[in-house]
Design goal:
Elements lengths: L4 H33 L6 H11 L3 H4 L1 H13 L1 H10 L1 H20 L7 H28 L3 E2 L2 E2 L9 H25 L2 H32 L1 H8 L1 H7 L1 H18 L5 H21 L2 E3 L3 E2 H4 L3 H29 L10
Antiparallel strand pairs: 1-2, 3-4
Length: 337
Amino acid sequence: MSEYLPTILPLVWAAILVLGVFIYVLLDGFDLGIGILFPFAPNHDCRDKMMNSVAPYWDGNETWLVLGGGGLLAAFPMAYAIFLPALYLPVILMLAGLILRGVAFEFRYKADTSRWMWDAAFAGGSTLAALIQGAAVGAFIQGFDVKDGAYAGGAFDWLTPFVLVTAVALAAGYVLLACGWLIMKSDGELRDWAYKVGGYAIFAVAAFIVVFSIWTPLAHEDIAARWFHPGNLVMLSPVPVLTALAVVGVWYALKQRWTYLPFLLSILIFMLCYTGLAVSLFPFIIPPEVTIWDAAAAPESQLFMLYGAIPLVPIIVGYTIYSYYSMWHVKDHSAYH
């Protein structure tokens, strides 16, 4: 059995990190989306309701970001050592945005004359964090310049048109999640507004999906070969087909003013796009050269950490589910600031 550990353990840890990042994108995505929408809300009362709707959850959502970053460092140290120097500036900006948003949560309801400043901090921090996360995804897809196991590029190599469009695309997806969340958690004027904005957001998301479905294979021959190889074409076709159906489903659910389906189908869109990304890049953890096996820590280290992850991940999943379940029907979350 021990001879298979160098092959199996990197796959296990890759699955853990993929799960952690995906859950983070979903959970922190909708409250970052609320921050993006914050300045455009109909009135001050609606802004209060928007912030209240995520008050009990937002800090717990970021647990998954810590799991993803810490797990990458521990299980794939080479990948961490390449990824961080390549994206120093974006990572710093993302952390600054998250800090601004967190501080705004704590101080906005205690402020009086300076509340406008914390409104700006909440909206600006959320928007900055969302854009940077999208930029990181774009930089990951386009790949990094790696030589002898280390990053060999410049500080701004990540800054390309592809990355900028990816940044806006992920922010649009977060807005769609936020609209679905507000539809479930609000009523009256705010819910009507969320239905309206969600209609614009789903068209933007659909447009970005089409753009990247064309742009990515044109820019990366290996990705095009994987998707359009005759042997893969039929096997992988359910991903774009289901994505198209999910997009139409969100549009129809918004038009029919259904309560839960816009959010649930938005999650499905993210899941399918995430699946498409995994299909395009696996087994590379640092495209286009470094695989999960190249970047993996020693099997003994990964196995030791796995003993801790086996109980820890279910505990995190459990308290996340419990927090959402226990607070779901509470209408006024202002006490949680």
